[in-house]
Amino acid sequence: MELEVRHLRALCAIAETGSLHRAARRLGVSQPSLTTQLRRIENALGAELFSRERTGCRPTLLGSAVLSRARPLVDGMSALVTDAKAEADAAGAGGPHLRIGCTASRVVGGWLRGLRLRLPGTDISLRVDVSAGALLRAVGEGRLDVAFVHEVEGCPLSVPDGLDQRVLLDREPQFISMARDHPAAALPVVDLADLAADRWMVDPTVDGEWEGLRRVFGAAGVAPTVLHGDYLTAASLVVLGEAVAPCQPTSGPRDDMAIRPLRDDPLAVRLLLVSRPGADMTVVYGELEAAYREAAQRAAGYHQWLVRHRSPLARS
């Protein structure tokens, strides 16, 4: 049996609901049918993906590894369908439209809100993707009008020829998320050495993420244990004290998680707005800058960092 997207979607539903019964209800199938499908998937892979317990289903080690790869694929397929429908609707409507792509960012909500206010009557669609490279290719092929992406320091992106680029921030430091009771959470700034004994969570499907982190570890002479998985899973592990993870400095405060800067900011990204050649991105860039400034001001620790580095984004 060859694995298909529907099989991966079933695995994700089982993991997210923790129960074959609840997963079957979400997927609109019977529980016996889903149980049979899970057995066929496990037979195809040669091992159990879930431990069946009286309280429900829990992923095995192999199951967790498969799920970490499955979720981005399922999300990507959903995004593909959504984008295709949005493009079809825009083509049928015949009015102005703006097709935006971006990697995950805390500023997206404010950016879209600002654009809808500034561009009334424009049909605005959004595609979020873990891969900056995929978004850039979509702009180059005319499937997106603009993409807001991050480029991990030391891991340059391949930007298709002819696209226009504007730099929102040449160097955004990446902070570290950890459990509230982590010893380093008591410090205002954390050294890499303080986290050398921790497990680090990184998403290898994000372009340059693992390579950039590995480069930083090598330069610092540390070799912590690294777990590979998506950042939704990372957040749950961080809260439980099972891992630490890089995070955006605009991440808001949480009662169950501490977010701290790394000393000397060894881990950083460049923030780019890339668009089709000749397109007027004045409003798009202006609203992105305003949304980023607003998000930075809400994150007190990061706003202080911007002030110290005399960034224009620190201005009200």
Kindly describe this structure.
With 316 residues, the chain is α/β, with parallel strands linked by helices. 43% of the residues lie in helices and 21% in strands. It has a 5-stranded mixed β-sheet with strand order 4-3-5-12-6, sandwiched between helices. Strands 10-7-11 form a 3-stranded antiparallel β-sheet, covered by helices on one side. Strands 1-2 form a two-stranded antiparallel sheet. Helix 5 (108-118) links the parallel strand 3 and strand 4 (123-128). Helix 5 (108-118) crosses helix 9.
Name the descriptors.
21% strand; 3-stranded antiparallel beta sheet; 5-stranded mixed beta sheet; globular; 316 residues; alpha/beta; 43% helix; 10 helices
Roughly how many Å is the radius of gyration?
Answer: 21 Å
* Strand order, largest beta sheet: 4-3-5-12-6
Please work out how many helical segments DSSP would assign. Answer: 10
- Structural class label: alpha/beta
Largest sheet: 5 strands, mixed
In which range does the helix fraction lie?
A: 40-55%
Q: Name the helix and strand elements from N-terminus to C-terminus, one letter apiece.
A: HHHEEHEHEHEEEEHEHEEEHH
Contiguous low-pLDDT stretches (5 residues minimum) are none
Report the β-strand fraction as a percent range.
15-25%
The pLDDT mean sits at: 89
Number of strands: 12
In whole angstroms, the N-to-C terminal distance is 58 Å
What would the principal axes of the Cα set say about the shape? globular
